[in-house]
Amino acid sequence: MNSETSGTTLSSRIASLVHAHFNALPTRSKPSIFPDGSREWIPMTGIVAVKGENTPLETLTCLTVTSGAKCLSASHIPRCNGLVLHDCHAEILAIRAFNYWLLTECKGLLFQEQQSPHDALNPDGAEPSGSSFIRRRSTEHGEDGHKPHPEWPPFEIQPDINIYMYCTCAPCGDGSMELCMAAQEDATPWEVPQTQNGHDTEDTPNGDMFLDGRAHFSLLGIVRRKPSRTDAESTRSKSCSDKLALRQVSSLLSSETSRLVAPTKNVYIAGLVLPEEEISRVACERSFGANGRMEGLAGRSWPEKIDHDKETGYQFRPFQILSVPSEEVAALWCFAKPKPVTSPALTPPKEDTPQTQSAKKSKPGNASAVWTLAPTYCDPSEIMTETGSKALPTLRRSKTGLYETVINGVKQGNRASAPGARGASALSRAKLWALYHNMTSDSTLTSAQVGDVSAVAPETRGAQKPQESTYMKFKEPHGKEDPSSIRMQAIRDAQQVLKGWMPNSGDEGWGLDVLADSKKRKR
């Protein structure tokens, strides 16, 4: 921590760092500003790693920056074939971007070990790598000389790292319902009459109601869809509040990274950082806290018996809610959603003011920005292959690992109806699975370098095709003590507690052959 930042709070330092990175992005990734002064608005999220928190050597590193406010309708999901992002809300893109970064960090560490095999492992199995973020787990054996069960993946987040998520606005859904009600001229909870097509509610497999994002304000503590226009086709994407609540149990790890990185406490969100005016303490405690709707998960762990000295395993780990003064955020962020300007009913304005005109014209931006930090180590020859770009921007002295502009779930310039492999975002299901598969099937890596990856990744190393023919097969656990099985049980138990969880299924039946792009590049 340097002298310039020692007097500021951690939440303010996190917010300032994320905004500095977003501001450095190219203009094409930002909301439009129109000639009349009106502008689009967009939520923005960043994930920051804090190393050595509350010590003189504390350092903050921005890992991801994302923006977005769109998601796909339910009818579009079966046509995605793993190539289209379902949910482009900033918070969800940030989590996917974090997992992309984590995969590349693991891959970079394997590459570094290949280049310097004598530095790969200490005799005791500890990894003295140069990565500030991840390390190899030490090899442990029980009293009988056998490896413990479950046998966790080979990597873990460095123990002095805490991960924070910063958002420019409250997550949609249950965590912001009081804010939505307060923004109405009449803040009394109200219910939307059921429409003829029944879009405002839907029965879940458990018999609970699955509510639209802004419907039925009188019902709180329940799972909701992403909010949308009343005339728009409904979605089955759960609200950001619900997905973040689930991450308090499942961690930030995805299906891919959970096979490489162990679920220690450092891979959970330590704190959610929000502008002060975007926080309802009542809503946050109800939505995320141990005394709210998650109460039934307090004290639980998966597997049931966890060595709490090592704290490896899935647990309910509620994050802190940290605030940033609203005036600080206002000075940093010009793309916030305009606040509704209301006037007393008895004295309506004779004409629109610039503020009311701006609020009426304002709409959410269509483009989503995706940025991730470059891995500590990487093979320079693969940068063009994985990102599709020879030159990547450097933001605030942070080298770029991935930079994309996404529209309607695919990279800018492509159609969501027919994206093809080149149109798929690096954060798409197909691309993330392919990245993981290429890592674990790389025939140039020795078993000593890969370590226990082969134990948790059932693919045949060096094979041309994955053993699992479809994405659905890939996600299936391979035994009761398989870490993937433990993770899935934790998720199922958490979804049971989160009443109203509706699966967004229909995009699992494809294989990695969807990435075989038949279109030739233009010369």
UniProtKB/TrEMBL annotation:
GO terms for biological process: tRNA wobble adenosine to inosine editing. Residues 137-150 have a biased composition (Basic and acidic residues). Residues 116-154, 343-367, 500-523 are annotated as: Disordered. GO terms for molecular function: RNA binding; tRNA-specific adenosine-37 deaminase activity. Transmembrane segments: none annotated. It comes from the Eukaryota. Residues 64-390 form the A to I editase domain. This is A to I editase domain-containing protein. It comes from Penicillium brevicompactum. Pfam families: A_deamin.
